[in-house]
Design a protein that fits this description.
- The complex is a heterodimer of chains A (113) and B (113).
- Chain A has 113 residues and is an all-beta fold.
- Chain A has no helices and eleven strands.
- In chain A, a hairpin with a 2-residue loop joins strand 6 and strand 7.
- By secondary structure, chain B is mostly beta strands.
- Chain B contains no helices and eleven strands.
- In chain B, strands 2, 4, 5, 6, 9, 10 and 11 form a seven-stranded mixed β-sheet that branches. In chain B, strands 1-3-8-7 form a four-stranded antiparallel β-sheet, with no helix packed on it.
- Classes of the chains: A mainly beta (113), B mainly beta (113).
- At the A-B interface, strand 4 and strand 5 of A face strand 5, strand 9 and strand 10 of B.
Chain lengths: 113, 113
């Protein structure tokens, strides 16, 4: 069964304290690994897509990386405005799903000033 | 660009009542989706529409029906609401092609009493 697991469930950081969020996946024929940011009371906002092991993408203080079993979202010198829930999702190669995403439960990040 | 617009934003229903959640996108996307998000459960796919005129069941379709009215609009109907359907509902759309992420609406918070 296709599955996406994120850890930790919650992470509290001090401003400037770098860390990483983990996303482990077991998907038959990965067609993309997606990261989203979700603020309270809002819909998820697309951040990155990764396709192959070794691929990296960056946006401001965020960098996403991909291995054959995991993806990491590295946050460098975070600021309070980076506080949000970060969602990971995988797209399977198996048809019938029409490219539907399988979401993890998210990591809630809090950055204190 | 408005992106994906959902109405209403909040709704309280009594058990057994019916209602329709509306979703419209102005990005000319082919695929549209309905998810529900519950604490500790993550985002779960209810129904999706790969293109105008087609709809398919997702992970948790029981108790729901959908209509892809045209390319822009995809509605979700609860025929006889149950307390278990209390949730936040998100509509999303996606441009066809590898690598494109979903664009989500801001959600409908539904409470069934």
């Amino acid at each position: 069964e296709d599955q996406v697991t994120q850890s930790p469930e919650a992470l509290r950081l001090q401003e400037g304290e770098s860390s990483s969020l983990n996303c482990s996946y077991t998907v038959s024929g990965l067609r993309g690994l997606f990261w989203y940011r979700q603020d309270p009371g809002k819909g998820p906002e697309f951040l990155f897509t990764l396709y192959s092991a070794g691929e990296e993408k960056e946006k401001e203080r965020l960098k996403a990386t991909l291995t054959k079993k995991e993806s990491f979202l590295h946050i460098t010198a975070p600021k309070p405005e980076d506080s949000a829930t970060y969602l990971c999702a995988a797209r399977s190669n198996y048809g019938g799903s029409q490219g539907n995403l399988i979401f993890g439960k998210g990591t809630k990040l809090s950055v204190k000033p | 660009n408005a992106g994906v617009t959902q109405t209403p934003k909040f709704q309280v229903l009594k058990t057994g009542q019916s209602m329709t959640l509306q979703c419209a996108q102005d990005m000319n996307h082919n695929s549209m989706y309905w998810y529900r998000q519950d604490p500790g459960m993550g985002l779960r796919l209810i129904y999706y529409s790969a293109s105008e005129g087609t709809t398919d069941k997702g992970e948790v379709p029981n108790g729901y029906n959908v209509s892809r009215l045209n390319k822009r609009e995809f509605s979700l109907r609860l025929e006889s609401a149950a307390p278990s359907q209390t949730s936040v509902y998100f509509c999303a759309s996606r441009r066809t092609g590898v690598g494109y992420g979903y664009t989500f609406g801001s959600g409908t918070r539904l409470t069934v009493v």
